[in-house]
Amino acid sequence: MHALGRLEDLPLDYREALTAKNLVPLWPSLRAVLPPRVPTRRTQPICWPYQELRPLLLQAGELTPMEKAERRVLVLANPGHGLENMKASATMYLGMQLLLPGEWAPAHRHTPNAVRMIVEGAGAYTTVGGEKCLMSRGDLILTPTGLWHEHGHDGDAPVVWLDVLDLPLVYFMETSYVVEGKRQAVTAEAADSTYQCAGVLPAPAFKRSQSDFPVLHYPWVKVRAALLAMATNQPDIEAVQVAYVNPETGADCQKILGFSALMLRPGEVLSLPARSCAMVFHQIEGGATVSVEGHAFQLADADTCCIPGYTPVTLSNASASEPAFIFIADDAPLQKKLGLYEVRA
Ligand code: GTQ
User: Fold this and answer.
1) What ranges in the chain are assigned the alpha helix state H?
2) What is the DSSP code string of 146-181?
3) How far apart are CA 171 and CA 167, in angstroms?
4) How far apart are CA 304 and CA 50, in angstroms?
5) How far apart are alpha carbons 134 and 122 in whole angstroms?
6) Considering the entire predicted model, what is its pTM?
7) Is 184 within a domain?
8) Which residues contact 26 (CB under 8 A, 6 or more apart)?
């Protein structure tokens, strides 16, 4: 690629004439916006060990009452994007949220989509569109765009969960806003969901739901059992991984971000090719090492890391006896819809 003309090559009075008319010459900036072969990524590989953030999150519980926080969250911010921009990647936001016994995070609804991956504690719940979802470690709970949601806590110890939102993307699109609301009436329990068991539905009364999000709560006990069964029954499978999907369509459970759970068998080393999507890894159980160029993050329980797109990654489980379970979030659904998704061998 040959060098293009620089801004300084242009006469000052010409540059000023352009600026005065809100005009910009493309060629000095062309290579910056269209770099050869590999996109410029501000997303840095970063790890947030849970044991380092947990005391600071609990301190937030002492420093800031719920009325002053609405959502008591420490954001896992990627310095590559500038901490103040509160992004883990270009599209993904990560936050660790703390709810203390008896607290209530009031109802609101917003345009960004959220999910919660429950990290610790018991007795808390989130009510999404009137459906009450009890929280247990490893559960995934959806809060899709536009649905009312609030969090409550009837237990006796702090509850912490990881929020994953497409907020950076929705904000970038100038479509991010919130509406505040009143406490919701509970009209359904997620535990009574129609979709209790893959492949069967309540008969004879089943009607397809009108919602794009027929399942809001994916209990970890079921996902974990599915992964263990896959590992046992399909020993030759390349990756023991399940995606969180809409059971009525088989499509990704949300429209912008994708979510999956991966089991690394004892001693397993899994190399993933470079893909165009950025990825987040959160350790649900066991320990795994996430290796990308120049970094090897040794994830312990509840640690979270992210990596940029177009980067090959190797996941390894050093334990000879225990599986490692990882929750993965990425922006592949968005990229696929836009025709931008790539896998590079
Ligand atoms: O729990 O509704 O981490 O609205 C950021 C924004 C959590 C929530 C976040 C939110 C929420």
Assistant:
1) 12-20, 30-33, 50-63, 167-172, 220-233, 332-338
2) T--EEEEE-SSS-EEEEEEE-HHHHHHTT---EEE-
3) 6
4) 7
5) 8
6) 0.97
7) yes
8) none
Measured CA distances, 95 to 7, 115, 167, 232 (Å): 41, 11, 11, 34
Provide the domain limits for residue 259: 46-195+215-344
By most ligand atoms within 8 Å of CB, the mutation choice from 57, 73, 116 for ligand 1 is: 73
- 14-32 confidence digits (pLDDT tens): 999 999 999 999 999 999 9
Does ligand 1 lie within 6 Å of residue 126's CB atom? no
Ligand 1 centroid to 340 CA: how many Å? 28
Using alpha carbons only, give the angle 286, 246, 276 rounded to the nearest 5 degrees: 65
**pLDDT attached to residue 335:** 98
pLDDT under 50: residue ranges of the chain: none
Asked if residue 291 belongs to a domain, the reply is yes
Domain presence at residue 107: yes
Residue 27 domain flag: no
163 CA distance to ligand 1 middle (Å): 7
Q: Please work out whether the CB of residue 73 comes within 6 Å of at least one atom of ligand 1.
A: yes
Instruction: Give the C-alpha separation, 142 to 147, whole Å.
Output: 10
Q: Whose CA is nearest to atom 10 of ligand 1?
A: 71
Ligand 1 near 144 CB (within 6 A)? no
Contact 284, 328 (CB under 8 A): no
- Ranges of beta strands (E only) in 188-267 are 188-189, 217-218, 240-243, 258-264
pLDDT value at residue 126 = 98
pLDDT of the residue at 204: 86
Q: What pLDDT sits at residue 202?
A: 86
Decide whether any atom of ligand 1 lies within 6 Å of the 139 Cβ.
no
How many domains, the chain? 1
Q: Is 95 in the pocket of ligand 1 (CB under 6 A)?
A: yes
CATH of the domain at 180: 2.60.120.10
Which residue, 330, 296, 327, is CA-closest to 313? 296
